[in-house]
């Protein structure tokens, strides 16, 4: 019965369809036969995606954009106060890393210049409020020269350039 239907369809196509439509049909049939052969690139090419405009955010300029550009990592990783320069660090140039990522909670590490954390900052507060500056500032105290770092599970206040060696902090450089 299926063969009879196929024969009938072929007969109708040969009499009534133009060559362009026949080619399109044959391409569609081939694609249906090899539907398991699709790879991710073909699927992505089929989707029309429009760029999402960047929304303006009311956060300070010192929260870093977390997109890797060159693939280089800091070694060793340093934290520093607001007087320390930020960027990619090496053993020769000691800079505070501005692309930190926490391997424990898998969030980027935010930094806030000229602030330090109050004593009543805890895990639950960070988990509910990070990385939103407006919410976090309720537990930050202004202090010139200090930099407040946090992810969603840990926080530190730093004033001098310091090598990241605390075993409680699971922060790594997320590539520059």
Q: Count the DSSP helices.
A: 5
- Which percent bin holds the helix content? 25-40%
β-strand percent reads: 15-25%
How many strand elements? Answer: 7
Mean pLDDT: 81
Shape type: elongated
Using only CA atoms, what is the Rg? 28 Å
Structural classification: alpha+beta
Largest beta sheet, briefly? 3 strands, antiparallel
In the sheet with the most strands, the strands line up as 3-4-5
Distance between the ends: 63 Å
Low-confidence stretches: none
Give helix and strand order, one letter per element, not per position: HHHEEEHHEEEE
Notes on the protein architecture:
The termini are far apart. The strands form three sheets. This protein has a three-stranded antiparallel sheet with strand order 3-4-5, with no helix packed on it. The chain has a two-stranded antiparallel sheet with strand order 1-6. The protein has helices spanning 2-16, 19-33, 40-46, 123-129, 133-136; strands spanning 78-79, 100-102, 110-117, 140-150, 155-158, 162-163, 171-173. Helix content is 27%, strand content 19%.
Features:
176 residues, alpha+beta, three-stranded antiparallel β-sheet, elongated
Spell out the blueprint of helices and strands.
Layout: H1 2-16, H2 19-33, H3 40-46, E1 78-79, E2 100-102, E3 110-117, H4 123-129, H5 133-136, E4 140-150, E5 155-158, E6 162-163, E7 171-173
Antiparallel strand pairs: 1-6, 2-7, 3-4, 4-5
């Amino acid at each position: 019965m299926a063969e009879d239907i196929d024969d009938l369809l072929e007969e109708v196509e040969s009499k009534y369809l133009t060559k362009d439509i026949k080619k399109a049909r044959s391409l569609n049939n081939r694609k249906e036969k090899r539907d398991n052969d699709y790879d991710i690139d073909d699927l992505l090419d089929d989707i029309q995606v429009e760029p999402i405009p960047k929304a303006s955010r009311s956060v300070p300029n010192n929260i870093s954009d977390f997109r890797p550009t060159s693939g280089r990592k800091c070694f060793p990783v340093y934290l520093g106060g607001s007087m320390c320069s930020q960027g990619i660090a090496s053993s020769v140039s000691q800079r505070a890393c501005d692309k930190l990522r926490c391997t424990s909670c898998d969030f980027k590490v935010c930094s806030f210049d000229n602030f330090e954390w109050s004593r009543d900052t805890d895990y639950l507060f960070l988990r509910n409020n990070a990385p939103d500056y407006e919410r976090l500032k309720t537990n930050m105290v202004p202090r010139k020269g200090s930099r407040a770092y946090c992810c969603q599970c840990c926080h530190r206040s730093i004033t001098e350039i310091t090598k990241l060696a605390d075993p409680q902090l699971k922060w790594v450089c997320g590539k520059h």
